[in-house]
Amino acid sequence: MTGRNKEKRYECDMCGKAWQSPSQLEIHRRVHTGERPFDCSDCSKSFTQLSGLQVHRRVHKGERPFECSDCGKNFKTVQELKIHRRVHTGEKPYGCSTCGKSFTDSSGLQGHQRMHTGEKPYGCSTCGKSFTKSSGLQVHRRVHTGERPFDCSDCGKTFTQLSGLQVHRRVHTGERPFDCSDCGKTFIQLSGLQLHRRVHTGERPFECSDCGKSFKTAQELKIHRRVHTGEKPYGCSTCGKSFTDSSGLQGHQRVHTGEKPYGCSTCGKSFTKSSGLQVHRRVHTGERPFDCSDCGKTFTQLSGLQVHRRVHTGERSFECSNCGKSFKTAQELKLHQRFHTGEKPYGCSTCGKSFAQSSGLQVHRRLHTGERPFACSNCGKSFKTAQELKLHQRVHTGEKPYGCSICSKSFARLSGLWEHRRVHSSERPFTCSDCGKGFKSCKHLKVHRRLHTGERPYTCSDCSKGFTCSNSLLSHQQRVHTGEKPFSCSTCGKGCFKSSAELKVYRRLHTGELPHTCSYCGKGFTRSNSLLLHQRTHTGERPYTCRDCGKGFTRSIRLLEHQHIHTGKRPYTCAQCGKGYTHSRKLLSHQRMHAGDRLFPSPLCGESTSVCTPVASSTTAVRSLTTRGGCNSIGGLTSASSCSHCDKSLKRARGRREHKQIHTRENLCVLRVWQGFYPHVQPVAAPAYPQR
To answer: CA–CA separation, 271 vs 190, rounded Å?
Structure first.
C-alpha cells in the first residue's frame, strides 16, 4: 500500500493515536514529554522538528521564498502558498458535516468543528482559560508573560501577534485595501468592512435577552449586558472610577494625564479619543451623514439623530424618581437630579463658586478672564455665550418670536413673555419676607431686598455713590456726570429723557394711551406702578407697616417719612440756619423764605408769600395767610374760618376744600377763586362754572 492508504501500525501508548512510521511516532511523543531538541540561536525558541526550526529561521532572515503568481504575495513554506492559492481559485475542500461551512485548510475546519462540540482542548496553566486552537493559547500566554514580540519600526508600538502588527502598519502607509461597494468607504481590516456593511443592510444579529436591544457585534452585546448586570470590571487606579469596557477606562485616564493624542490636521485641536476626532472632522468637511426621515434634519453623530427622533415620537424615557419629570436623555436626567441633591461638582479655582454643569463653570470663568468670544457682526458687541449673541442679534433683526395670546405683544426672549403675562394675571409670585411686597420676577425681588439689607453693589467710579441695581448707576452717570439725555420725543421735540422706557411713558401724553386699566373703576394709567397704587384705594391695602406703632401706608416712601417721627431723625437740614425737617418738600418751602422767593401774592393786601395755599373765600384766605405769616397788617384773626355758604367753622384748609365741594358739587373751587382775584390770569381752555 502506498500514499494515503498505507497502514498506520505505530500507536502512541499515551493517547492511542497511530502513525505510519516510527519517526512520526517519535516526533509525536515529544508533544507529551515536552521535548523540543531544536533551538533557535537568535531567539532561543525551540521546536520538536528540524523542519519547524528551518521555517522559523526565515522569520529572522525575512526570507519568503515562495511567491504567489497571481498577487505576488510571498510565503515561508510551500504549504502556506498552497493554502493561499485557494483564495484566488475559491477552492474550499474541507467542509463541515454539521452546518456545511467549508474551509481552505484542515486546521480551519478542525477549529470550526470545536464550536459545535464545545471542545477547548488547549488550557492555560496560569488562569485556566481554554481555547479551541493551540495558536490561541500561545497568543493568550503573552498576556501573563507580557511578551509583545512584534514591534513597529516606525513608532515602536509592540503587538502580541504578527497580524496585529501588519494591520497597524497600514496606519503609517495609509493603505486601506477593503472598500465598501455601496458608499466607497475604505477600511484597514476585512472585519471593519464586514461590520460597516451592516450599516447599509441594517443587520444587528446579536440581541440582548433582557431588553431586546440588538447590536452589530458580539462584543458590543457583551459590553451592553454589563448595563443590566452592573458589572464594571475596568477600574481607574487614580480615582477609583470604574467602566464597563477598557476603551472607556483608557479615555478616562487621559483626563488625569491630560493626554490628547488625536490631533486635527486642519485646526490643530486635539482629542482624548479617536472617535472625538472623527466627529470633529465633520465640522471642516460639512459632512452630516445621519438624517431624520421625518423632517430631513441632518446630524454629525448617530446619537444626535437618536435624541432628535424623540422630538417626533414624544418619547421621554428617563424619569426623575423625586419629582416625576421625564427627559429625553440620561444625561439630562443626571443634570436635573443635581437640583434635588444640591450637588455642584464643578468648582471655580479663582473664587470657589461651584456649578452643577461644566458648561456653567466654563462660562463663569470668563468673568475672571474677561473673555467674550462671541462678537456681533452688526455692531461689534461681544458676549460670553453663543446664546447671549443669538438673543442680541434680535435687536438688529427685530425678531420677536414670543407673542402674548391676550394682547398680541411680542418679545425677543421667552422670559420676557413669562413676566409680561403676569401683567394680565396680576400675579406677583415673588414676595419679600421683610415687608410682604410682591414682585413679578425673581430679579426684581433681589434688587428690592437690597433696600432692607442696605447692600449697594454698584458703585459710581466718579463720586463713589452706591446703587442697588446697574440701571440706577447708569442713569446716575448719565444724569449727573455726563448730563447725557439721548432720548427725545419726535412729536414735541422734548429731549430730556435718560432711557427709552422714560420716553415710551412720556409719549403716551401725546397718544392718550392708558394701557394699565383699573379692574374696579375702569380708570386708566400710563404706568403700571400708578395703577398698583390706585388699586390700593379700592382694596384698602396698606402693605408698608410701621414696626413701632403699627400704622400702615400705601407707599414705602410714606413709611420711611413716618419712621422719622419715632427716630427723631430730620435728614433734610437747611444749610443757612440749620433747621431740620422730616420731609424734603418742607425743606424746599423753608428755603424759599431765605431766598426771598415770594411767588404767590395775597389777594387781600398784595403781599407775596412763599407758599401757595388754595382757598375758598376771602375770609379763609386772610386766616390762611395769617397763620403762615402773611398779611401782617391784619391782626386778631383766629386760625379757624367759616364756610361762606353755611358759616360752618373749619380749621384746616384741606377740610375747607372738601366741605366746599358739598355746596358746589365741583372740584374746581380753587381755580374759581383765583379767577375772581386775578381776572387777568386765564386758564387754558377755562371751563364753564355753575352759578349758585
So the answer is: 27
Amino acid at 641: S
Average pLDDT, the chain: 80
The three cell numbers locating residue 427: 400675579
Helices and strands, counts by H and E, the chain: 24, 44
Beta carbons within 10 angstroms of residue 656's beta carbon: 25
- The neighbour count for residue 553, using CB atoms within 10 Å, is 18
112 alpha carbon, distance to own chain's centre = 54
10 Å CB burial of residue 184 (0-12, 13-18, 19+) is: exposed
Taking the C-alpha atoms of residue 668 and residue 291, their distance in angstroms, rounded to an integer, is 76
Mean pLDDT of 152-176: 87
Q: Domain of 667?
A: 615-681
Domain total in the chain? 1
pLDDT value of residue 133: 83
Task: Give 456-482 pLDDT, tens digit per residue.
Answer: 888 888 888 888 888 888 778 777 777
**CA nearest neighbour of 361 among 385, 392, 383, 333:** 385
Contact 198, 180 (CB under 8 A): no
Residue 591 above 60 pLDDT?
Answer: yes
Task: Give the burial string for 252-289 (b: 16+ CB within 10 Å, else e).
Answer: bbeeeeeeeebeeeeeeeebbbeebbebbeeeeeeeee
DSSP-based three-state secondary structure for 19 = strand
Query: Does 72 fall in a domain?
Result: no
The reply to whether 673 falls in a domain is: yes
Distance between CA atoms of residues 147 and 594, nearest Å: 105
pLDDT at 691 over 80: no
Query: 180: which 3 cell numbers?
Result: 465598501
DSSP collapsed to 3 states, 580-637: EECCHHHHHHHHHHHHCCCCEECCCCCCEECCCCCCCCHHHHHHHHHHCCCCCCCCCC
In a domain, 274, yes or no: no
Would you say 613 and 628 are in contact if contact means Cβ atoms under 8 Å apart? yes
Q: How confident is the model at residue 639 (pLDDT cuts 50, 70, 90)?
A: very low
pLDDT in tens, 179-235: 888 888 888 888 888 888 888 888 888 899 988 888 888 888 989 998 889 899 889
The answer on pLDDT for 634 being more than 60 is: no
Q: What are phi and psi of 466, to 5 degrees?
A: -100, 150
Q: Is residue 213 part of a domain?
A: no
